[in-house]
Amino acid sequence: MTRSIRLLASASVLTVAGLAASPAFAAGTTAGSTITNTVTVSYQVGGVSQNTVSATDNLTVDRKINLVVAQLGTTTTSVSPGQTSAVTGFTVTNSSNATLDFALALTQSSGGTAAHGGTDTFDVSNAKLYLDSDNSGTYNAGDTLITYLDEIPADATKTVFVVSDIPLGKTTGAVANVRLTATAAESGGAGALGILVTQTAGANTSGMDTVFADDNSNGNTAKDGASFAENDYTVLAAALTAVKTSKIISDPVNGATNPARRWNIASPSPTAPGARLRPTSHSRTRCRPRPPILPPSASR
């Protein structure tokens, strides 16, 4: 038995008067922050208070990379054949604990099921991406043409519009499906897209590590630092039929009074020889009523 233990034993009573620790949690804490944990022990020996004992430990908050791309709205965008500047959209949310850039890529499906249940049958043309600069949720002339998202703070959400042209000749029910993919990139200065973020390899370090935390919802790949979603355009066109007829306005026998319609053996025409005809035509249009074509608005 050591001397210190003998001393405590002779004192008969050891009372721990206090044991306190100050835990800290990193949820929502900015990447790279230092968190200090402190423990303090207050105690008595034989009813006599002793000097408190304390210790501290520091840790650095890792950088969690998480992002979510989602379709804007819940329904397809109705379009007409030949329509220009047709608008659909997406939201991009930075769920990380650090400011990031996001590289953007727009792709079009080649067949398969579209975002709202139809089958992809055609591609749009002249597709461009615009940032909802005024946060109105509606595409307008003040929105900014972009190829990436720049310096997006933690927990911020941005709306990205897809503006494209619809080919002529498409019939009702034709669908064009588009996909927007966002990939995390380093921040570091406005006006330029940073390099793509890479995850820290190997064991945990004492400094700030980078950890991918994105999930596999909606067909995404988990922990790859990227996210995608799909939206679509659906054509609503008029069903038009044309009918051509003619009217006899005179013939050589009766003139304009009750002009005859009879067969000429030499020329099988259903009118008298020399009769004058007035062509007439009309068309029938059958279409379902539809609301005005408006750009989608963000869910608020």
Short description, anyone?
3% of the residues lie in helices and 44% in strands. The protein has 1 helix and 18 strands. The chain is rod-shaped and about 140 Å long.
> Roughly how many Å is the radius of gyration?
37 Å
State the distance separating the first and last CA atoms: 71 Å
Shape: rod-shaped
What structural class do you assign from the helix and strand content?
A: mainly beta
The total count of helices amounts to: 1
> What would the average pLDDT be, to the nearest integer?
82
Main beta-sheet annotation: 5 strands, antiparallel
Poorly predicted runs: 1-27, 262-269, 289-293
Strand content: 35-45%
Keywords:
single chain; 300 residues; mainly beta; five-stranded antiparallel sheet; five-stranded mixed sheet; 1 helix; 3% helix; disordered N terminus
Account of the 3D structure:
This protein is an all-beta fold and 300 residues long. Helix content is 3%, strand content 44%. It contains one helix and 18 strands. The strands form five sheets. Strands 6-8-13-10-11 form a five-stranded antiparallel sheet, with no helix packed on it. A five-stranded mixed sheet has the order 7-16-14-9-12, with no helix packed on it. Strands 1, 2, 3 and 4 form a four-stranded antiparallel sheet that branches.
Write the layout of secondary structure elements.
Layout: H1 3-10, E1 14-22, E2 34-45, E3 48-49, E4 53-60, E5 63-65, E6 67-71, E7 77-79, E8 86-94, E9 100-108, E10 125-131, E11 144-146, E12 148-152, E13 157-165, E14 175-185, E15 210-212, E16 226-235, E17 239-250, E18 276-286
Parallel strand pairs: 5-15, 7-16
Antiparallel strand pairs: 1-2, 2-3, 2-4, 6-8, 8-13, 9-12, 9-14, 10-11, 10-13, 14-16, 17-18
